[in-house]
Design goal:
Blueprint (H helix, E strand, L loop, with lengths): L1 H8 L17 E7 L4 E4 L18 E7 L4 H11 L3 H8 L6 E5 L2 E12 L2 E11 L3 E6 L7 H9 L9 H36 L5 H31 L9 H64 L14 H22 L4
Parallel strand pairs: 3-7
Antiparallel strand pairs: 1-2, 1-3, 4-5, 5-6, 6-7
């Protein structure tokens, strides 16, 4: 509801950050590299954006912005690269659906990355503006998703220094998909704990835990579905992806499909958990009712006998017999024992 009100009050053409402020101050981190050399600047001064030579043929430039809440910084980056205002509007809206759009001279790609903290699912939007010679990434928060890529650039390991912006994008998407694999591991642990609880000690909170996991899975699938579509579009190729790098995006497609299949499997398993939980609860209720029914069945004839001798008649022939009391107890005990033996023979006990 809050984001709808923000959009309603937004003026046409106005750039507005929609989402949470996750860091105090925006931070720019710049890499410029080729096969022979690289340079790194952190923090990169915002005032130097106007003079940044970002689109050089002999080097690849990677500029990363941490923090989207400062609209002025985003506008300066947009002015530097000639980015369409609609693109800036999309990347500032952290509730936006993952998508990919191609423009003259660059393409825009945005996705969601999810992580589990203290059993709470947190989301962060990460966006990219990509061309042959540069890549600009936008993160909401400080994170370590791409630290291993920075180490590769610094140490000149792998092919990153020999490639251009499209290969860098592949490495970054691959790193974010790896985070989904970590999330998959977290769900596997939660599922195993939940399955053990259902079988051995179900309680009134178990059903809420199942529903919470199902809601998280629904949100994950809602996020992964458009991401898969965007990766499929990248896999088919565009004018900014070199032909020899196409195979890497095919690998991303396979990874995204594998992750989606895995979370779909968990959804089916949780549906089975729901049925198992209510089945076990129903069986335990039936067991309780069976015990109560057996106890009632044993006491029905005893209650009948006691009721007969509790009537206010003056004359009961057997009341004058000196053994009537112990005989009556013997009859009642015999009936009880006989019924219990019968129930046990029928395997009702």
């Amino acid at each position: 509801m809050a984001k709808k009100l923000i959009r309603k009050n937004k003026q046409p053409g106005e750039l507005l950050h929609i989402g949470d402020k996750k860091i105090d101050l925006p931070l720019l981190h710049l890499f410029s590299y080729n096969e022979k050399e690289f340079s790194e600047t952190r923090p990169f001064p915002v005032k130097d954006l106007v003079s940044l030579d970002y689109n050089r043929e002999d080097k690849t430039t990677w500029l990363n912005l941490y923090g989207l809440h400062d609209v002025d910084v985003v506008m300066k980056i947009g002015s530097l690269t000639g980015t369409d205002k609609m693109v800036l509007e999309d990347l500032l809206n952290t509730h936006h659906r993952p998508k990919i759009e191609e423009f003259p001279g660059y393409f825009f790609f945005t996705l969601k990355v999810l992580k589990m903290k203290s059993q709470v699912l947190e989301t962060e939007q990460i966006s990219f503006i990509v061309s042959q010679n540069y890549l600009i990434s936008f993160q909401e928060d400080l994170g370590d998703f791409f630290d291993h890529i920075r180490d590769r650039i610094r140490n000149n390991t792998g092919a990153v220094r020999q490639k251009k912006g499209d290969y860098l994008l592949y490495l970054m998407i691959d790193a974010l998909l790896d985070n989904y694999y970590l999330l998959d591991d977290e769900f596997e642990k939660e599922y195993k704990k939940l399955n053990y609880e259902i079988i051995h000690k179900p309680n009134k909170d178990t059903a809420f835990k199942i529903e919470k996991l199902k809601n998280n899975l629904t949100f994950i699938r809602k996020t992964l579905s458009p991401l898969r579509e965007s990766i499929l579009r990248l896999e088919k190729g565009n004018s900014f992806i070199q032909q020899d790098n196409q195979k890497y995006f095919t690998d991303l497609k396979d990874s995204s499909l594998e992750i989606i299949d895995s979370f779909d499997t968990y959804m089916h398993l949780l549906e089975s958990c729901t049925h198992l939980y209510f089945s076990l609860i129903s069986n335990r209720t039936n067991e309780t009712m069976k015990v109560l029914t057996i106890i009632s069945s044993i006491f029905i004839p005893l209650t009948f006998i006691v009721g007969v001798y509790g009537m206010n008649f003056i004359y009961f022939p057997e009341l004058g017999w000196e053994y009537s009391y112990p005989v009556l107890w013997g009859i009642m005990i015999s009936i009880s024992v006989g019924m219990m033996l019968y129930f046990k023979k029928k395997k009702w006990l």
